[in-house]
C-alpha cells in the first residue's frame, strides 16, 4: 500500500539500551555446536555482544526511563503529549495496554490517546504511520512513539538461531507537524499467511502456557527451545527478506524518482550483518550507506533497531543538519515497510543506558 | 586460491566432502553452515552471491557448487 504524509516530521530520537552486556564467546557453550563452527558464524553474522535485561525488566520500565529522561532534559513537557503509541510484542500484561501503563506511571493527563500496536521488526515504520495519521487531527500536535521489546525473556538461551542476536531496547520518537517538512512517501505490506515464520506459539489464548508448552525440545539443527519461546524459521525469513525487501525499497525509489545516490543512508532493520550486506548488494547500495553494526554491538531489538542504528551512527549529523534517508523494517506478521524522508535537524538524537541496579 | 573442497573442509573438517552427493541430506551441512559457505565463497572469488540463490540445491555437492560458480562467471 502506498502512503504519503505531508508536513509531518520526526523531531527527536532517543534510544534506551540495558546496561547489561553479554558476550557471544561467553554464551557459546550453551549451544549444541562446536566452538569452531560458532566462531565462524560469529564472523559472518556479526554476533559479538548484545544488550539484554538481566532481571524481570518489562517494556514499560524501559519506556518510562526513556520518557523521564526526555522530561528531565526539557525535550518533552508532560502536558504537551497528545498521543502515546507503544509498539511492542512483549507487553507488561495481556491487559491493560502497555501504553496505559506508561501513561499512568508517568502521571500524564487524561486528555490524550494511548494506543498499543503489536508489531515487531517493522514496528518503527508501522508506528510512524500511525503517529503521522494522528497528527492529521487538529487536536494532536505532539505524538510520542515508543518502540520497545524485552524479547530476550522469551528466547531460549540454547537456541543458536535466535539467542546470540536478540537484544532488548526501547526508543522514544517525538513526532510533530512541521510546515516545511515536505512529503514523506511510504510503502507498507503485510502477509498473514506467513505468520508462522516468526512466532511465540504458546502463551496466548490459542495455546495457553502449561507444563507441556514449557518442555524443552531439540530441533533437527540442535537448537533447544520450548513452545513458550520465540521460534524463527531462519530460511523462510531470509527468503522473505531477499524476495520482498529489494522490491519494496526499489519500488519506493522508482515511484518517487529517487536514485540510490540521492539517498544519504539506508537505515534498515538489523537482523544480522550477512543479511543486510546481501540486501545492500541486491539493491546496489554501497555497504557504508547501509550500516549493519547494531547486531554486533547491541543485538536485534525488533522495532527499535531503526532508531538504534540511527542514534548509534548518525547522531552528530542529524543534530547538526538533515539527511535524506530511506527507512525499512521487515519481520513478524509478516510485515514489510519502507519510508523515504528528509530526517533532521533533530532536537535530540541520543542513546542512554538503563541500569537495573539503580 | 582455495578450492571448493578446501573451503568446505575448513567449515566442517570432520567430513570428506568429495564422497557425498548431498551434504544436507547426509548431515554434513546445515542452514548456518550454508551461510558460512556463501560468505567464504564470496570472499574467495570476489563475488556477492545473490541472496535468492542461497538455496541448498545450489550447494548440495561439489559439482553443484562448481556449476553454480561457473554460472556466476567464476572458474573454481
For the structure shown, list the relevant keywords.
heterodimer, A: 358 residues, alpha/beta, Peroxisomal Thiolase, Chain A, domain 1, 2 domains, 5-stranded mixed sheet, 17 strands, 29% helix, B: 76 residues, mainly alpha, Non-ribosomal Peptide Synthetase Peptidyl Carrier Protein, Chain A, 3 helices, 43% helix
Q: Which band does the percent of strand residues of chain A land in?
A: 25-35%
- Write the CATH fold name of the largest domain in chain A: Peroxisomal Thiolase, Chain A, domain 1
How would you characterize the largest beta sheet of chain A? 6 strands, mixed
Could you give the order of strands across the largest sheet of chain A?
A: 6-5-7-8-2-17
Summed up, the helix count of chain B is: 3
- CATH fold group of chain B: Non-ribosomal Peptide Synthetase Peptidyl Carrier Protein, Chain A
Low-confidence stretches of chain B: none
CATH architectural grouping of the largest domain in chain A: 3-Layer(aba) Sandwich
Description:
The complex is a heterodimer of chains A (358) and B (76). By secondary structure, chain A is of the alpha/beta class. Helices cover 29% and strands 26% of the residues of chain A. In chain A, the strands form five sheets. Chain A has a six-stranded mixed β-sheet, sandwiched between helices. Chain A has a five-stranded mixed β-sheet with strand order 1-9-16-15-14, sandwiched between helices. The termini of chain A are far apart. The relative contact order of chain A is 0.21. The mean pLDDT of chain A is 95. Chain B has one domain: Orthogonal Bundle (Non-ribosomal Peptide Synthetase Peptidyl Carrier Protein, Chain A). In chain B, 43% of the residues lie in helices and 0% in strands. In chain B, helix 1 crosses helix 2. The longest helix of chain B has 15 residues. Chain B is globular and about 30 Å long. Chain B starts with a helix and ends in a 5-residue tail after the last helix. The mean pLDDT of chain B is 88. The interface between A and B is medium-sized, with 24 and 15 residues.
